[in-house]
Amino acid sequence: xxxxxxxxxxxxxxxxxxxxxxxxxxxxxxxxxxxxxxxxxxxxxxxxxxxxxxxxxxxxxxxxxxxxxxxxxxxxxxxxxxxxxxxxxxxxxxxxxxxxxxxxxxxxxxxxxxxxxxxxxxxxxxxxxxxxxxxxxxxxxxxxxxxxxxxxxxxxxxxxxxxxxxxxxxxxx
Length: 173
Hints:
The chain is α+β, with helices and mostly antiparallel strands. The chain has helices at 3-9, 14-21, 25-32, 43-52, 57-61, 107-116, 126-133, 140-147, 167-170, and strands at residues 67-71, 74-81, 85-90, 104-106, 156-160.
């Protein structure tokens, strides 16, 4: 989990997070900005963060998973995650087939793109949809991992490493 991206998605400042978790701002700031790795944090700090994000401690360590973007059965891009950014190798620049607009994208923007492939987080009964996917929280990365980012209005979808899927396997129409 990228804590800075998650805070931005929740419109929450580091200061607000510090107050709500009881973690000192001076200790939280370097964690949020990747200057202190989560592996070096005390369990109590990790537990407070997990409670704040409504997830398990293990979820804090979950790295974003590289994936491929497709238009139908045509591979249009590869996305590789690094510490605070995603590197995109685009195979087409056709705007109808391409969801990524540049070759290097901050994780926050990737999160926004992923969220655009999900239901509205304020949707009535969203908990029921999340429950059906086996999720306890609204997390665009996890939702897209389960749904492949498929939407009714286009043929864009995401395929993750190790999957042997085609458009006909994931399409919703």
